[in-house]
Structure formats: C-alpha cells, structure tokens
Amino acid sequence: MAKDSLDSVTIGILELADSHNANNVCEWFEQILKEWDIQKHQVLTVVTDSGANILSAVKKKTFGNDHHLPCFAHTLNLVTQRPLNELPDIQNIISKIKSIVTFFKQSVSANDELKIVCDLKLKQSVPTRWNSIYYMIDRFLLCSNHIASILITIRRGPSMLSGDEIVIAKEINLILKPFEAATKEFCGETYIKSSKVIPLIHCLLKHCEKIAVNNPTVVQFALLDNLQRRFKSLHSNKPVAVSKAIRTIRLNILDIKTNSSGSNKDSSDDDTEQADNLWSFHNELVSKKRRKILKRTMSVCQQN
Predict the structure, then answer these.
(1) Residues contacting residue 5 through CB under 8 Å, at least 6 positions apart
(2) Model pTM?
(3) Which PANTHER family did the record assign (predicted)?
C-alpha cells in the first residue's frame, strides 16, 4: 500500500479439481499463504461470499471468526435476486426477455438484422454476474423498437413483450437502478469501502421508498423488506452519524479523484453522477444541517 493510495494485487489463482468443500478450500488457503510466506496473523480481514463451504474454511479452519467479513456487494445482489425469482408475473417477463436475447444470440440472421438498425448489442443475464438482470433489461428496452420490428417478420421467433409488459419492465429497471449504483460504489479498488456500508444502506432504503411506480409495487416492497431483513442489525437510523461518516468519506474520495490520472475521467464522472443520485438523501441531510448551523450563527451574532 502506497502512502496515499491502495493497491489491489492478485497473488493466486488455483483450479480446484476436487470437491469444493471446506477442507479443500482450506488447503488452497494454506498453499497460497505458504507460497508467499504470509503468516496467518498478518491477514487482517478475509472478504468472501456467504457460501457455507467458504465460511467454514475461513472461520473454523484457517483464519478464525474475527477475521471474516461478508462481501456487501454480494449480499446486496442476493437482496435483488430473491424477490425477482419468487414473483411469478415478474419472473415471466424476465424469462420472456431472456428468451428473446437468447434467440438473437443464437440466430445469425436475426442478429445481423439487428446490427443493421441498432448499434447496441443485447446483453444476457448470468446468475453469477452482479446486476446482470438489470443490464439485460436496460439494453433490451433501449433496443425494443428494433427488436419488435424484426421479430414480427420471423415466423418461428419468440413472442415480443406486450405494451403493458414493456411498461412493467421499465419500472422493474427503475427499481433495480439504485442497487446497481450501490454495487458500483463498492467495486472501487482505490479507496476504503467498509465504512460506507451503514450510511449507504440508509440512503438506499430512503431512495427506494421514494421511487414512484404504478405496476410492480410488490417488487418494490419485497426488495425493501429483504433489504431491511438482511441488514437489520446495522445501526443506520442515526442521520447525524450517517452525515458525519459520509462527509469524511466523500472528502477522502474527492482527494483521490483529484490526484488520479485524466485517463479515467469519463468513467469516473459517470459513476459519480449515479452515486450522487443515490446519496441524494444524505445531501438533503447536509443541507438541512447547514441551514440550522447558519440560522444559529446568525441568531448569536444578532444577540451580540
């Protein structure tokens, strides 16, 4: 780690030919530690998903319970997956979109026709890829008019979504968008992210509550309920603490971005714009706090 920045380095990739049980994963950890001459007490934190085999290997067999930290972005992705998979009407729309995307991926003629009228490529959802359903629906909606014009000419092609289903798909994407932005907040490798969890969850809850949709309100309520249940133990109900934490974090991030190279300027601006939308509740808290301080200061000055 340099003086004013963090480094992310891959020290090992190993194919596990045997069963991925806790004992074999533990042996892999031991092999990597031995190869790099790293002592276990030198490892401060091990961040993993919530798989039972991984948890057992880290907590019980290798590093101990005090050294494990669950991956927030992975947990956040699980928050969105469960409601989408358990609501039949929503799952039906997602399945129809996935079938259409699969058809264009497998049909050379249909894909060639789409390339002629549209510069964008369709994206397929992948269960192991974070936010892939959001990206699939978002790209599908951008290309929907072109897709409809092509499918209507194909006799054995999949059925296009109806007008009502298109509207619902747009609202599903609107609900998933803040979760995608939150995931991006935790994919950075040049700044500390763990201290952002509590304030971000609070802002995410407030942001989702304010989303105005007409159709998939069940999705909205299910996501909010799942989000609260998974992170109910976090102390995210103190606005003043949230405001102070975010203020310090954002100042540090601003310093890092100011000193970073100009080659990443465009992508950083896009991420910042999405993050600012997600942090809108925090910004409101900051504005209210500043007005109170200003009002109190003016009152003291007038008394003197």
Answers:
(1) 190, 256
(2) 0.72
(3) ZINC FINGER BED DOMAIN-CONTAINING PROTEIN 39, ZINC FINGER BED DOMAIN-CONTAINING PROTEIN 4
